[in-house]
Structure formats: structure tokens, C-alpha cells
Write a structure and sequence with these properties.
The structure is a single chain. The longest helix is centred in the N-terminal third of the chain and has 27 residues. It is elongated, with a radius of gyration of 23 Å. It is mainly alpha-helical.
């Protein structure tokens, strides 16, 4: 039965087969690109109940035109990006299905994600970094922890003045 199907397929004009394969490839590619773009979007990311406050603060920020993964995923190569995204995605799926009692009220970036975020900040803001001394802290979030999730997303220490000696110890940083 399968053999007959292949014989019928090969009996069709090869140009028609090539055109059909080309159209199918274009449709598959467009579908994949649109799906990946949606999976990068703030609209998708805010679907988890733990991301509601993160999303609300993000849409009020100066970075609201960006996609979540412009900041939260590495951009060196597509394979690394997809691996990182898949790993984070599987963690989120676990917490939202099986580990619901372990979901924290506020999600903080892991050290791995923080390195990625810091690199992406530096890549986008190269000219600014060159104009200002940035050696006071370990990463961008040390001073800019409310960007782009500032409104109602500040931790308890945000408005506290530095302790005596901290400015000197941190080379003037906050």
C-alpha cells in the first residue's frame, strides 16, 4: 500500500512536487518564526500567575518595546539561545504544574540568567557604558535593579541609604 503511494507520488510532474515542497517549506518556516516570536513576547511570558507583577511593571518601563528574551536570553548563537530557553521553559513548566507549592511570590534571576542579562545590557548600552565609570558594582542590576521592572517591583533595600563606608568601599556606587 505504501509502495503504491510512493509510485503515484513519483508519477507527478517533478516541477509540481518541487513547487509543493517549496510552498510547504515556506509555510513551515513562517509558522515556526511566528511561534518563536510569540514565545519571546511579553504577552506569552505574563501568562504565568507569578509573572503578573513583572509584566505590569515592564509595560510601564522605558524598555516596554523590547521582547522579554531580548534581555533574558543569550544572543551569541541560536543553538545556545534555544538551549537556554528550553532549560528555563522546562523549569517554568515544572513549577506551574507539579511544583506549585514551591513557587515563590517573587521570582529572581538565577546567577546564570543574571550573567546573560548583564551581557545584554552591556551590548545594548555600549555607548553609555563608555561615557560613565561602571566599576563600582559587579553587574548592571546592582545599580539599575528597577530597570525595566521598577514600578512596584523594588525590594525592601531600594530606598535605604548606604551604610557608613559603603560608598568608599564600592568606589562611589550606591
Amino acid at each position: 500500500m505504501l509502495k503504491k503511494g510512493f509510485k503515484k507520488l513519483w508519477a507527478i510532474d517533478k516541477r509540481v512536487l518541487l513547487l509543493g515542497a517549496l510552498i510547504a517549506g515556506v509555510l513551515f518556516s513562517l509558522g515556526t518564526v511566528k511561534t518563536m516570536a510569540y514565545l519571546d513576547s511579553p504577552g506569552f511570558c505574563q501568562n504565568c500567575h507569578t509573572m503578573k507583577s513583572v509584566y505590569t511593571s515592564f509595560v510601564d518601563s522605558t524598555h516596554a518595546e523590547l521582547q522579554c528574551n531580548d534581555c533574558h536570553l543569550p544572543h551569541e548563537n541560536e543553538v545556545g539561545k534555544l538551549f537556554f530557553k528550553g532549560r528555563a521553559g522546562m523549569t517554568h513548566i515544572y513549577y506551574n504544574t507539579l511544583g506549585t507549592e514551591d513557587i515563590p511570590d517573587r521570582i529572581y534571576a538565577t546567577s546564570r540568567t543574571m550573567r546573560v542579562i548583564n551581557q545584554n545590557c552591556a551590548d545594548c548600552h555600549k555607548s553609555t557604558i563608555g561615557n560613565v565609570s561602571h566599576d563600582a558594582k559587579d553587574n548592571c542590576m546592582s545599580c539599575h535593579k528597577t530597570v525595566p521592572h521598577g514600578k512596584d517591583f523594588k525590594d525592601d533595600t531600594y530606598d535605604q541609604a548606604p551604610k557608613s563606608g559603603d560608598l568608599l568601599k564600592n568606589k562611589g556606587g550606591f
